[in-house]
Amino acid sequence: MKAISRRLFGKTAAATAAAAATGVTLPGLAASGLAFGQSYERKPVSLKFPEGFKWGCSTASYQIEGAVKEDGRGETNWDIFAHTPGKTHNGDTGDVADDSYHRYKEDALLLKNLGVQTYRMSIAWSRIFPEGKGTPNPKGLDYYHRVVDDLLAKGITPYVTLFHWDLPAALPGGWQNRDTSKAFGDYAGYMAKHLGDKVKNWMTTNELTCFTDLGYRIGQFAPGLKLPNGEANQVCHHGILAHGLGVQAIRANAPSGTLVGLAENATVCVPVIETEEHIKAAQKATRLLNAQFLTAIMEGKYIEEYLKYHGADAPKWEPDDFKAIGSKLDFVGHNVYTPTYVRAADGPLGFAVVQNPSSYPHMASPWLNIGPESIYWAVRNVCELWHPPAMYITENGCSSDDVLTPEGQVGDVDRVMYLRNYVTQLHRAAAEGYPIKGYFLWSLLDNFEWADGYSKRFGIHYVDYKTLKRYPKLSAEWYKTVIARNAVV
Ligand code: GBH
Predict the structure, then answer these.
(1) Atom of ligand 1 nearest to the CA of 365
(2) Which of 18, 163, 180, 489 is deepest in the core (most CB within 10 A)?
C-alpha cells in the first residue's frame, strides 16, 4: 500500500498536498507566479471539423455477412479460395463471419449508438446475380432493400460499394476475362436502377490493386494466381475498365442527384521533410506509383512512363475503354492505412522511395506501419494533382491484439492512439481547405480479415466468434465522442 501511494503521489506531490493543507506556498511553486491550486490561463486549441462533416464506419459483404448458402447467393472466388487448404490463416472462411446477414439490425443499432451519419457497406454481387450475370435473384435484392430501409429509418445514410472482392465464381476466367468488366457494368446499372431511389452515394470498386495484383500477380488473395507480368497487367486493365463501365451504368440508370466514386488505396507518398523539393517529389511519385489505377482513372489514359516501363507487357485496350475509365467522378474515396516515404532525388524520376528501417513501428498486422501524416498527404496529393470535387476517407483503422475482460471490456488504447493521430492529421487537411467531406472508420466490428482469417481484429466492436456477441471497445467510446463534438478528442 505504501509503495503504491508513493508511486501514485510521489514525494513532491505529497509535499505539495501537505503544504496546501497548511496554507504554505512552496518555493518551487512561487517561481511560476501561480499560487497552489491556481490554473494556467490555458488557451485550448479546438480541432473542430467543418460543419456537415460526415462520420461513418465501413464494412464489406464477405467479411461480415456469412449466410453464404442462403436465399440463392451464388458461390464466389473467396468461398473457393478460403476453402482451399493453406490459403487463409487457420483455414478460416467467411461461411459465418459476423452473421450480419441475420444481425444487420443489431449492427445498425451499434451505428446508431455511435451517432454516425453514414455507413459504408458493400453488396455481394452473387446475391444479386448468382451467376454473375443473366437472371437476377429477387431475394438478394430484397435483402439489401431491408438493410438500406433499416439504416434510413435510423437516420443513417448508406454509401454503397458494388465490389469489395467477392466475385461470382461462375464468371468464366474471373478478372482475366474482359467480359467480367462488362458483367460488372450491367450489375452496377441494375443496382442503380433498383436501389437508386434509396441509395444516393455509390462506389464502384474497392482497392483495385487488391483484387487484381494480389489475386492474380502475387497470389495472396483469391483466386491465388501468379500470372506473368503481361497477363497480370491485363487483369489490372479489366479492373479499371469495370470501374469505368460501372460509373457509366450508374449514371445511365440512377435518378439525378446520385453521386458516384470509388474506394481506392493509392500508394500514399509522404514527403520525408515538409519542404518544397520533397513535397514536389511526393506528388510526382503519387502520379507514377499509381499509374495503373488511380492515375489512369483521373487522367483517362495510361501515362507514357507507365507504358514505356512495361513495354510489350503493357495492357491492351479497345478504343472506347478510356472514355469509360476516365468518366468524371463526383468524389474520390481513399482508404488510408500506411505511408510510403518519398524524397527528392536526382535522375529522371526526380524522386526516390525511402525504405523503412526494421525498427519502424506497426500495429498488430505486420504490414500496418503507423504514419498518421499519410491521411493528410493522401488528401493533399490527390487534390493537388487532380482536383476532385470531393474526397472521402473510405477506410482508416487498424488491428490490435484485443483482449476481452471478464467484465466484457476491451481497453484498446493502442487503436485509440492510432486513430486519434490519423484523425488529427485529417483535421489539418480539412482546416487547410481541401474538399474532404467525410471519414469512414474500418471497421464497425471485427470480421473476416481475408487471408489473415479471424486472427486480426480491426473492429471498434469486439466480436466473440463463439457467441457472435458484439462488445463496444474503448475505441467505440472514443469515436462516439469525436462524432458528438465533430472534433478531435
Ligand atoms: C483494406 O485492405 C480492405 O479494403 C479491407 O477489406 C480490409 O479488411 C482492411 O483494409 C484491413 O486490412 O501481408 O504484407 O503481404 C487493405 C489492403 C492488402 C493491406 C493486403 C495488407 C497484405 C500485405 N491490404 N496487404 S502483406
Answers:
(1) 13
(2) 163
